């Protein structure tokens, strides 16, 4: 791996503390970091290197399991990578001083001018920072440069296009690494292997044998401390435009010619290009929006969305979305893809269920036996597992046919975190599991009529009690087609 300088904007923030430092620490322990590396944390606070290193150490104590089982000298060794600079992201002078500091470290360690800029900051600063990196000369190095940014990427199609145009003034497309943390989840990365490394599944992976696909990302948490952001975003922007459409793309993509970042992205984009656009007047037929009312989760009563701190009592924001999508191509024509996501639901679960066509049921009907469809269930979180449901005679129950589940599951404690995998790829320059601009743009294009329908209030806002799996209308969406959520 190339030696580099890792420049972290927003180093005193929450994401850095919870995810970035612990993930870097795991990479360090696994010897997956370059030998020569400087990490420069930037933030508004006037901290010294020592204060920053203490902060990193504390974050490991709170959020890194592995730090509890290592010798203190290992942690010390890790902390030596970290330096700190106060920086006002809007002040160009600050960037020039930063350039001097970076050059000094590069010379001291005699490392090439490879610079990775990670923006863990509020989205309104993405373009400001990128343009200042360019203007200050920070971005004109003799080595490579990369810009890593988090969602949200825009608020709608237009704002996303504007943001992209600004970023592109400072960085080439292949230098921009857009993070969707769902793409870092090991089971999401495994989708490609399930579909393409198993001839048995590959033979079944199309409308010939699959009746429908269901993708669920349910959460038990509410808006938490993000009322300002969430009340503007809703489930449609927060989860559907990015995470859920990414899962649709990865499930539906066709076999790439080779497993390169470009080829995989080409296949993902192909899916979005064939995704049937929603027209403003048919949004309501294919989409259910909901908002939670008061209820109970794990025995504790929780307030309704509009009673949450920071949320307007009149808010019409969506905390739940279910939708039916069609991919109009030769492989998936006629197979509905159902997605659903929501806050304050009954359980935390992200999973993909592939339901196979059930063509043999008549044979067993005569014997009064039920033969539920075969299912392939991919559990993404909180547990990672792959589960196949077959029908089999149960000798303990009068040899009646019953569904059995064959499961493979990973040992949770050995599974790397999404951020760990993504950071490793970003350090290495592998962009396979980062989102390309075209994917963002086509996703917003698909979502745009939904946003407009919501703005015009053209769609009923269904209530659902906290602690349930969403409004009844979400069940009806599948019942109309003769299916049910698994
Ligand atoms: C984030 C959303 O992108 O994903 C959050 O902004 C949501 O609202 C989170 O809670 C869910 O991620 P995970 O990994 O817990 O499924």
User: Going across the major beta sheet, what is the strand order?
Assistant: 16-15-14-13-7-12-11-8-17
| β-sheet strand percentage | 15-25%
What is the radius of gyration? 24 Å
Number of helices: 16
Ligands bound, unique: 6-O-phosphono-beta-D-glucopyranose
EC number: 1.1.1.49
Active site: 243 (proton acceptor)
Domain Glucose-6-phosphate dehydrogenase NAD-binding: 7-190
Domain Glucose-6-phosphate dehydrogenase C-terminal: 193-486
Descriptive notes:
By secondary structure, this protein is α/β, with parallel strands linked by helices. The protein has 16 helices and 17 strands. It has helices at 14-29, 49-63, 72-79, 92-108, 126-136, 157-170, 186-189, 191-196, 199-204, 227-252, 261-274, 283-286, 361-365, 418-428, 437-455, 472-479; strands spanning 4-9, 37-43, 82-86, 115-119, 145-149, 176-178, 210-218, 287-293, 295-297, 300-302, 320-325, 337-342, 349-356, 375-381, 385-394, 400-409, 461-465. The strands form 3 sheets. The protein has a 9-stranded mixed sheet, with helices on both faces. Helix 1 links the parallel strand 1 and strand 2 (37-43). Helix 1 (14-29) crosses helix 14 (418-428), helix 10 (227-252) crosses helix 11 (261-274) and helix 11 runs parallel beside helix 15 (437-455). It is globular. The two termini are 44 Å apart. The chain binds 6-O-phosphono-beta-D-glucopyranose. 6-O-phosphono-beta-D-glucopyranose (BG6) binds at residues 219, 238, 350, 381.
């Amino acid at each position: 791996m190339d030696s580099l300088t890792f420049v972290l904007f927003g180093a005193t923030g929450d994401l850095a503390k919870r995810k970035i430092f612990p993930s870097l620490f795991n990479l360090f322990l696994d010897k997956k970091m370059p030998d020569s590396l400087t990490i420069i944390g930037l933030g508004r606070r006037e901290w010294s290197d020592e204060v920053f290193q203490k902060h990193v150490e504390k974050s490991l104590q709170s959020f890194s399991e592995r730090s509890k089982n290592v010798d203190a000298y290992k942690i010390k060794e890790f902390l030596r990578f970290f330096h700190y600079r106060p920086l006002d992201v809007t002040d160009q002078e600050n960037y020039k001083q930063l350039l001097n500091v970076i050059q000094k470290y590069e010379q001291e360690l005699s490392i090439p001018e490879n610079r990775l800029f990670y923006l863990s900051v509020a989205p309104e600063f993405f373009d400001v920072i990128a343009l200042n990196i360019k203007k200050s000369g920070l971005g004109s190095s003799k080595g490579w440069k990369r810009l890593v940014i988090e969602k949200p990427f825009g608020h709608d199609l237009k704002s996303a296009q504007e943001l992209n145009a600004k970023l592109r003034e400072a960085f080439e497309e292949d230098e921009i690494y857009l993070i969707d943390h769902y793409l870092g989840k090991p089971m999401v990365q495994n989708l490609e292997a399930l579909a393409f490394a198993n001839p048995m599944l590959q033979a079944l992976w199309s409308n010939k044998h699959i009746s429908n696909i269901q993708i669920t990302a349910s959460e038990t948490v509410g808006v938490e401390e993000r009322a300002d952001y969430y009340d503007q975003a809703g489930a449609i922007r927060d989860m559907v435009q990015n995470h859920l459409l990414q899962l649709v793309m990865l499930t539906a993509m066709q076999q790439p010619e080779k497993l390169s970042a470009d080829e995989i992205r080409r296949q993902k984009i192909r899916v979005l290009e064939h995704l049937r656009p929603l027209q403003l007047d048919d949004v309501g037929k294919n989409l259910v929006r909901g908002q939670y009312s008061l209820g109970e989760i794990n025995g504790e009563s929780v307030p309704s969305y509009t009673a949450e701190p920071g949320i307007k009592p009149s808010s019409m924001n969506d905390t739940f979305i279910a939708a039916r999508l069609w991919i109009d191509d030769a492989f998936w024509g006629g197979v509905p893809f159902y997605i659903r996501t929501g806050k304050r639901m009954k359980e935390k679960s992200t999973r993909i269920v592939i339901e196979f066509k059930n063509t043999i049921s008549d044979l067993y009907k005569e014997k009064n036996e039920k033969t539920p469809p075969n299912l392939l269930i991919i559990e993404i979180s909180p547990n990672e597992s792959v589960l196949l449901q077959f029908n089999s005679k149960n000798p303990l129950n009068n040899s009646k046919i019953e569904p059995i589940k064959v499961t493979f599951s990973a040992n949770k404690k050995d599974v790397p975190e999404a951020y760990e995998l993504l950071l490793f790829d970003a350090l290495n320059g592998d962009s396979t599991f980062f989102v390309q601009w075209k994917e963002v743009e086509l996703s917003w294009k698909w979502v745009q009529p939904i946003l407009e329908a919501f703005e015009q209030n053209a769609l009923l806002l269904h209530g659902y009690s906290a602690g349930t799996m969403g409004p009844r209308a979400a069940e009806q969406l599948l019942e109309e087609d003769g299916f049910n959520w698994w």
